[in-house]
Amino acid sequence: MVNKGAKPGSATRRPTVEALEVLLQEPIKVLDHGFIRVVDYMGDDKAIVDAARVSYGRGTKTASEDRALIHYLMRHHHTTPFEMAEIKFHIKLPIFVARQWIRHRTASVNEYSARYSILDKEFYLPTEDQLASQSDENRQGRGKTLSSTESAQVLGILRQDAERNYEHYEWMLNADSKDGNRAGIARELARINLTLNTYTQWYWKIDLHNLLHFLRLRVDRHAQSEIRQYARQMLTVVQAWVPQTYEAFVEHRLEAINLSRTATSVVRRMIKGEQVTQSNSGLSKREWLDLLAGLAIAPEDDR
Amino acid sequence: MVNKGAKPGSATRRPTVEALEVLLQEPIKVLDHGFIRVVDYMGDDKAIVDAARVSYGRGTKTASEDRALIHYLMRHHHTTPFEMAEIKFHIKLPIFVARQWIRHRTASVNEYSARYSILDKEFYLPTEDQLASQSDENRQGRGKTLSSTESAQVLGILRQDAERNYEHYEWMLNADSKDGNRAGIARELARINLTLNTYTQWYWKIDLHNLLHFLRLRVDRHAQSEIRQYARQMLTVVQAWVPQTYEAFVEHRLEAINLSRTATSVVRRMIKGEQVTQSNSGLSKREWLDLLAGLAIAPEDDR
Amino acid sequence: MVNKGAKPGSATRRPTVEALEVLLQEPIKVLDHGFIRVVDYMGDDKAIVDAARVSYGRGTKTASEDRALIHYLMRHHHTTPFEMAEIKFHIKLPIFVARQWIRHRTASVNEYSARYSILDKEFYLPTEDQLASQSDENRQGRGKTLSSTESAQVLGILRQDAERNYEHYEWMLNADSKDGNRAGIARELARINLTLNTYTQWYWKIDLHNLLHFLRLRVDRHAQSEIRQYARQMLTVVQAWVPQTYEAFVEHRLEAINLSRTATSVVRRMIKGEQVTQSNSGLSKREWLDLLAGLAIAPEDDR
Amino acid sequence: MVNKGAKPGSATRRPTVEALEVLLQEPIKVLDHGFIRVVDYMGDDKAIVDAARVSYGRGTKTASEDRALIHYLMRHHHTTPFEMAEIKFHIKLPIFVARQWIRHRTASVNEYSARYSILDKEFYLPTEDQLASQSDENRQGRGKTLSSTESAQVLGILRQDAERNYEHYEWMLNADSKDGNRAGIARELARINLTLNTYTQWYWKIDLHNLLHFLRLRVDRHAQSEIRQYARQMLTVVQAWVPQTYEAFVEHRLEAINLSRTATSVVRRMIKGEQVTQSNSGLSKREWLDLLAGLAIAPEDDR
Fold first, then answer.
1. For residue B157, what is the nearest residue in chain A, using CA coordinates?
2. Does the first or last residue of chain C, that is N or C, have fewer Cβ atoms within 10 Å of its Cβ?
């Protein structure tokens, strides 16, 4: 990535991460008009280790090396050391995505105000491969991709409605008094005519512990595809910033599975060589299939 | 208020507030289709006093009576006793109001999910007296009310755009497979076509301290008119629930004024009988006018 | 439990839990002088379900029954419905326990103030079976119980030091001006002479989601024995209050195990009948032993 | 301040504050053995302005200059931009101060663990000018300084009790197995014998908005003298770090006064030249004296 806008760096005695300095200020494209952009950060893998070692005091002499300590902290849910690193993003995103995002309350946000300012004429239109029917199994997900005819119809509607509503927004604002006979209405009122795929933007600042929690939920296959695309890009930022933490996060969270009490007893029986079936497992159909998937066992076996 | 839906009450040994029991479960109308409805509560004025008195231990023998103590707590920003009371609302509100509301992070929320379910065909349309032009002085406010001609035009647009977009939403969902040749698209996608004045609803639970903070900001004249209408109704609920706290809140917050260091010195000079003007006050124009307003001095005096 | 202090109940239309009403206000003894006491509560299992169902809107027609829904919410980490129930305790506890407890930031607290009031002459002294040497394996735990001689010595020291320091506290306060020649010192200063096993007390209010998180960490065998004794009593309160949530909590949290990516692949190999040893597992010694313990496999097998 | 430990700086494209770089890592002494030490920071005055201006979008063209904007934000309680700057301290402090400090929940903390490690033999002993009797007017404050005889007695007690309890702590630990006949007890148990003036230490990370809130409460004359000494040193750090924010904080918070509804009407009457007395003011004695103090009017006037 060519770092066109790079200012000559200042000198600092703070922890500095070269791999993240390269990304600083550069927009990383997401969806059709969105982006994430790292604006600032504080701390690195070493800062997490330092915070954890405050606890050990004199004991640090024999402490295991950094990577092992970070794995230990992640494995045992010692969350406060990961709160000691912080990152700030500038993000451009559709309003319906912003509404899901803001439910994470442990972050600081400054959003573009449509009461002060006029929103740009930009709205999210899905690509054809994103246009899918309601899932049959998953009440909140997508099923099969649409036919190209139906896709074209849907995209036509989304585009026309967003554009028409935006044009009416501009007309109601009458911001440049194009029509001298009209007063126009306040920005805070006119914007209520805009569609939920209109883009907004914000500064979003969060500590690493809470960012990982956000990412765990939002890269999950149950999250809506659009917010997952943001989460996946942020995950690559985390990997550049704190590679040891990233590795521990993948090992103990992202690719870990939670075995309920009943699922644990099923696994015990399987290890003993017992043929367990859903009906004698004590698990519901859904739990049973999730367990098989987690263990990479084909369900047709129905062992 | 006739309490039609009243179930026969259960017996409880918890603090109970009769004036709030009467309001329980009853929707209080706000805007054209919105409401607030108290679903549950915990604590009363006495519970706040009890929590505060834990601090005093043996000292309670000589403690002043409840009302004075609540005033003392409010005046000295002792916030934790007010966290000891809690309330839960069911609220129906337009999405653009929900977006302002959710910025208050110290509450618990369960919102209607447009990924799981289909939104109702209900959208906020301002009354004519709410339709006003952009304010000249206030970059985020409203100025003069529109002419009736322009009002009618604006309302026509808002209604038609919201209705058309909703009809397209239904068409894209094809929920009842009216058109057997189309798969329809997932709910989570179709809803991006809806306008920001579409109604949503949620359960919202918050402690009294944070509720008062919310109300202080949202009954303020700088808040958008629509959210103020919700805040004003909630204020009447607070008055019924914790009347002593309500009184202290009005005295020390809602109708109190904050004098900056410079404004304090202006007031000192005024009390000594000095003729202070904006130019010799050390205050900006805006601060000067706010001070005069706070002191109910007509600015034309320009004392 | 005889409910001596019971006032005749008030009538309420709020959700009421009989099994918890019985416990209301009654101190449940913990350690030598401590207790927990439920002061108030809000919500029940049904309130959690109601909040979750706001999300489903029209979809509720086909919704599964309450118990299944609560399991589903717990399993899929849908935390906000569990925030909709709230509980308030009055707790008496030693200061060193209070210092661990307060690290949980998502609660409201009003603590007895040793600046305002004089602390009681009460301090925690461990029972003999609690007096143990430093663990060899666990840097933050206990190992073998002391000999009765050493126990007696230790208890003697703890008692004498706490008593002497308390007597000096009283002397420095000179609260009743026993010695007319001395002014005595301020309470906020005198208390710095007290030992960390002195008892304090507070009101502590928390929502159910955060309470379960607290309990998960504090009933854990890595938590210090003294705080675990409080946590275990609170767990019985949760069971009385929200029995369905309690059951789901045990199933999906308390008795569940987390399999890391590597541990999951070990389990897959075991199920296929492969003989896995620590050395070919990819796990550290500690992780390997924890996995065997989780699966109830004796380590001596070293399969 | 000579920056002995300075490593040669890394290059960074992040906002950098020279006046704070100089302070980085250097302990600033507080009390007899305590210190604060800035470990890391993120953002500066400009970062606050940038975050605020996200809201203005296109409107930034005519936006007022930075200093005026920061004053505006502070005056109107726009708190989120101040959350965009972050600072991390390493702090050494007595346990009784730590207990007051930790009540501020909006920070991240990693504390030295007396379960893992052995605490140092360091405890806070007040200087003679800090040793004062209980205040007569203020139930939580200090009155007159002690006589030198009584001071010497009190300091003797504090020193002897802390030392004896520490020596018993060491004896009970038997950490180096000086006495081969004893097992010693676990660190987590032995420490309960220590006094509340024993020093602990932690990493403490907080955003600027919440830091200012902490400082406002903790430099206040109602705060205990010991924590005020920490707060005052932190205030000088804030001044070096974000000088414009510091100035606005002093103007609109630290040296501002809050006039209740009733106090406002008293001020109005005073400005009109009316002779107001406590008895006709509608204020309590305490409120009346606070108002006079705020307006720098001698109470003997009793105007």
1. A168
2. N
Q: What is the pLDDT of residues C213-223, one digit of tens each?
A: 999 999 999 99
Active site residues of D: 218
Write out the two tokens for C27.
Answer: 């101190």
Annotated active-site residue B286? The verdict is: no
Instruction: Return the CATH architecture of domain D15-123+197-256.
Output: 2-Layer Sandwich (3.30)
Task: For residues C93 and C87, give the distance between their C-alpha atoms in angstroms, rounded to a whole number.
Answer: 18
Q: What is the pLDDT of residue C300?
A: 58
- What amino acid occupies position C89? F
pLDDT tens-digit series, residues C154-198: 999 999 999 999 999 999 999 888 888 899 999 999 999 999 999
Distance CA C220, CA B285 (A): 61
For residue B170, CA distances in Å to B177, B186, C57, D24, D39 come to 11, 11, 16, 60, 56
Nearest to C80 by CA among C42, C53, C114: C53
| 3 state DSSP class of B192 | helix
Residues in D closer than 8 angstroms to A62, CB to CB, are none
CA D86/CA A203 separation, integer angstroms: 14
How far CA D4 is from CA of B204, D27, D33, in Å, comes to 54, 12, 20
Query: Is the ipTM of this structure higher than 0.90?
Result: yes
Interface of D with C in 182-221 (CB under 8 A): 182-189, 191-197
pLDDT digits (tens, 9 = 90+) for A153-198: 999 999 999 999 999 999 999 988 888 889 999 999 999 999 999 9
The token pair at B161 is 């755009």
Yes or no: say if C113 and B58 are a contact pair by the CB < 8 Å rule.
Answer: no
Is pLDDT of D237 > 80? Answer: yes
Which of C221, C81, C295, D247 is CA-nearest to residue A267?
C295
Chain C interface, best mutation among A221, A271, A284, by max C CB count within 10 A: A271
Distance CA D234, CA D217 (A): 13
Q: Shortest CB distance from B195 goes to which of A143, A173, A195?
A: A195
Nearest-10 crossing angle of helices A148-173, B148-173: 170
User: Which residues in chain B touch residue D249, judged by CB atoms under 8 angstroms apart?
Assistant: none
DSSP helix/strand/coil, B29:
strand
* B224 lies within 8 A of chain A by CB: yes
Prediction pTM value? 0.95
- Inspect the interface and report whether the beta carbons of D173 and C103 lie closer than 8 Å: no
